[in-house]
Each structure stands twice: as structure tokens, then as C-alpha cells.
Amino acid sequence: MHSINNITTYRKSLVLRLFTFVFCILLSGLTTAQEDTRYVSENIYIYLHSGPGSQYKILGSVAAGKTISSLNETENGYAKIIDDKGREGWVQANMITSKPTFRITQPQLEQQLADIKQSLSQNDSKEAQLTAQLQQTTDKLSLAEQAKKKAEQELLKVQMQTKDEVARLQTQVNELNDDAKYQFWREGGMIAGIGLLIGLVIAYLPRPSRKHKTRW
Q1: By C-alpha distance, which of 26, 45, 48 is closest to 102?
Q2: For residues 140 and 182, what is the distance between their CA atoms, to the nearest angstrom?
Q3: Among 46, 112, 151, 157, which is 20 to 30 Å from 96 by CA?
Q4: Would you place residue 78 in the very low, low, confident or very high pLDDT band (cuts 50, 70, 90)?
């Protein structure tokens, strides 16, 4: 759960970066519109002359947005440079700027946007994976709780059955004890009765007469 919270925070950070990126693009467009003369137009070429003026020979052209090296020489509104092909010449000073043009910054911004989108996509994938894992864990926990509840019910059922069986056996033992006591007293009574009867019979039997001893 803690990992999902971290991912959510990270997503908010990426969204904030995306908004910042869009704002920078809009701000860059506004700046370009306000300072048109300081940026090379994206739809023209700058002519490279052999001297500081349009009357000098054209050596070639420099595509708008290309990186050039300034030699810090200016004359008649022209600046001396070395272009991206290594050619040295003069171009209109108001057509160059020390800041990167939109043609250079746009690929960088597009790459940043692509990186942000990729990060968001990867983040969404990780969040979906963690959500699936969390759901699986929740399902397993639910099954475990159901199994535990079922086991507790089975245990309670066995305990009740065992208790009933113990009570039944105890009843049988008590009944056997009662039967044994009754049998004991019955047999004892019978023995006593038989003994009494024998005693009475013996008492009423005729006794043999005593013979007188002969005197010599």
C-alpha cells in the first residue's frame, strides 16, 4: 500500500512537470512574438556575404536555426561569423541572436515531453501491476479467512460431538455401575436368604439320641 502511495505522489510530480512544460512552450511562443526582430525567422535563410553589406558577394546561405560562431565584429549592421559549415562571412546582425531558436529548443522540449509521457506510461504500468498484486493478496487473504472460519466451525462441531459422546459414555458407565450394584445386592440377598433357610432347616432336623456308655 505504501508503494502505491509513492507511485501516486510520483505521478502528481510528473503531471506538474508536464504542466510546466506546456507553460514554457506557451511562454516561449509569446516571447517570440514580442521580440520577432531578435530571432531568425523559421521560414527564411540568412545570406552570408563576403563583406559587411548586401553589395558584397553572397558566399551562400545559412539555414535558420543553425548554430554559428560570432567573431565579435560588427559593421554597417552586419556581424562577422563562422557558419555551421566553417565558412567565414558577414550576415545581418539583427537576424542572429545569442539565444537558441525555437528550432533548437523544440526538439529538446519534444524529447522532454516524450520522456514525461514514457515515465507516466511506465508509472501507470507499475501502478496497474501493484494494484493487481494487491487484489491477488486481498483475494488470498479472503480465502484464508474463509478457510479459517470453516476450520473453526468444524472444530466446534467436533467438540460438540465429542462432548455428546462423552456424556453418552458417562451415562452408560453410570447405568453399568447401577446394574453392578443391583446385581451385587441381589446376589448378596440371595446368599443371605439361602443361608438363613439352611440354618432353619438344620435347626429343625431331629437330633440323634445319645447312647449310654456301658459300664464294665
Answers
A1: 26
A2: 62
A3: 112
A4: very high
